[in-house]
Amino acid sequence: MQRRSFLGGVLVSGIRGTGANQPAPMNAPPARELSIGVQPGVPNIIRARVVIVSGASGGVFLYSPGAPGVGNLVASMTEATNDPFGNPTLPGVVSYGAFSEIAQLVAGVLRLGATTDPTLGQIDATGGAMHFNSGTTGAGDSPATFAMQSKNVNSGGLPRLTSATSAIVINPSGTGAAGNQLLVVSNPASPGSGPSIRFQGNAAGDQLLGMGVAGDTNQRIAVNTRGRIDWGSGSAVADTDLFRSGAGRLASSTILADISGAEETVHAVTFANSWTQAAGRQATQYLLAPVPGSAAQGSVVVMGSVVVPVGFVAGQAITTAAAAAYRPNNAAPVVAVDVTANGPVEVSWTAGGVLNYNRALGTAVAVGDIIDIPLFTAFLNN
């Protein structure tokens, strides 16, 4: 066989199909990874291990749709105030919506809002607490609003929490809101000695809970920090109430009230002319009572038990004068009982607000006798 024919056959048998089927050359290096930068033949892909952006106007900017330009910036990562095309930008990592809405992550704070005011909504964690903030900034701050509702707001009707200057308002929204429960508190475990819900005021007497109807100028029901409950029409101040007037005592100002309308309590007398309280018997005292069915104070209720002193005389004052609010137009006499002598005695509540000993009506009264004064009423406008 000729050498030329043999070599030709070997060459032909070693070259089949395309070059892709050729065996690797002897001692050839392995294939390398794609090079960093724009890939040959694929101009839309950049592959890099580290990207460094620096400079006063540096940043990463994303545009859609179409070529980069004015009005189609959708995201940025920069500290500049504008992108290369003049679109306004915010610091940090920012996503821009089609209607000026933004989501901004900067310095550990997530802000949700608008390009005109990026702090309409803000979530941050400072001082060991998570903060959810909402509302416009600066002078004339508008109320913060937290909307918790279904994606379809017209069918959800779930509460919308609005934080005004000094209040949080729960206001349902959507057509499905009618009849919805706005707030349900359910404690799956026994609360023990503490309440599931606690209302705490700043001072005793502060109004803590109120109820009314849209358009009312006053609360129809109000509860204060003393536990007092006031009721009214909603168009005027409350005219009925219920409160604790002392240990083991429940009262109402429609039964007990002082001249200012505050909670009335019984008043101990100040004795005069050596008259004294009878030991172990009804305390000598007085209080205001309103006209039945009216908030006006109509009478003074007086009661007690006293000891006749040395030097007593008819027409003598037993007590000093009460305040002007407790003085009737005219004296109101009543028959008391000298329990020692078993005889009737006349006493009175004078126009000067004094409990007065008038005279004995039967058996003579003596020093040391005990006179019981039954509960009696002196009408103020008598």
Mind telling me the C-alpha Rg? 46 Å
Structural class: mainly beta
The named CATH superfamily of the domain at 253-379? Phage tail base-plate Siphoviridae RBP, head domain
> Could you say what the CATH topology of the domain at 253-379 is called?
Immunoglobulin-like
The total count of helices amounts to 2
Q: What percentage of amino acids are in beta strands?
A: 35-45%
Q: What percentage of residues falls in helices of 4 or more residues?
A: under 10%
Average pLDDT number? 78
What is the name of the CATH architecture of the domain at 253-379?
Answer: Sandwich
- In the CATH scheme, the class of the domain at 253-379 would be Mainly Beta
Distance between the termini: 157 Å
Main β-sheet: number of strands, strand sense, barrel status?
9 strands, antiparallel
User: What is the ordering of alpha helices and beta strands?
Assistant: HEEEEEEEEEEHEEEEEEEEEEEEEEEE
Low-confidence stretches: 1-20
Tell me the number of strands.
26
Which outline best applies? rod-shaped
What's the SSE blueprint?
Elements: H1 3-14, E1 37-39, E2 42-47, E3 59-63, E4 73-78, E5 92-96, E6 101-106, E7 109-114, E8 117-126, E9 129-134, E10 144-147, H2 153-156, E11 159-163, E12 168-172, E13 207-211, E14 221-224, E15 229-231, E16 240-246, E17 249-251, E18 267-268, E19 276-277, E20 285-290, E21 297-307, E22 316-317, E23 332-338, E24 343-349, E25 355-360, E26 370-379
Antiparallel strand pairs: 1-2, 3-4, 4-5, 5-6, 6-7, 7-8, 8-9, 10-11, 11-12, 13-14, 14-15, 15-16, 16-17, 18-20, 19-21, 20-21, 21-26, 22-25, 23-24, 23-26, 24-25
